[in-house]
């Protein structure tokens, strides 16, 4: 009989096997992604179904509504999202582009909210989804205003190459972060997806460290970074001041 600690780690492995765009996973794929034996993954999945954390979908399982309900109780993300949405709406209206709100978790960014534009390119990002921080404007904006140990942990984990233009050389990456600290704006020039540009700016806490980031993304042949950068920078600064008053 596995210990509670062993079960917990296996349950986490099963739950984190799901990606943002997964509608459901079969037993074989769940086992492959979780790294567990098929019989173990299946048994854990059934227990999670009983708990409401997973739902049955024929012979497949998908993330359950209870997980969403629990996620909505996370104070940092909820407060940040609720405060950010009005500014995000204004940014989308002003730029006619897709606006993102993201936070850092480990070496990845997690997208808390996305307001899409009608003619925006298909983005690699999704609400609740993750991307390597080094390959995104929001990730670089957050890291530029994070403690040195946070940046070092990302470097130690290895910079992930997502697209042909993703910066993966540690020296070049740290120099880019220094420039972002000076200017207050980070850029993704087709690093997270072909044809996609992004300007991002950090949302800062009272201590001057980033608690998240806003970005505006669009097609490289339709959006001028120089035009949208001041707007996203202003929105992020104003949001930071709003949060500081709460």
From TrEMBL:
UniProt domain IclR-ED: residue ranges: 66-245
Domain HTH iclR-type: 5-65
InterPro entries: GAF-like_dom_sf, HTH_MetabolicPath_Reg, Tscrpt_reg_IclR_C, Tscrpt_reg_IclR_N, WH-like_DNA-bd_sf, WH_DNA-bd_sf
Pfam families: HTH_IclR, IclR_C
Domain of life: Bacteria
Gene3D superfamilies (alphabetical): 3.30.450.40, Winged helix-like DNA-binding domain superfamily/Winged helix DNA-binding domain (1.10.10.10)
Keywords: DNA-binding, Transcription, Transcription regulation
UniProt protein name: IclR family transcriptional regulator
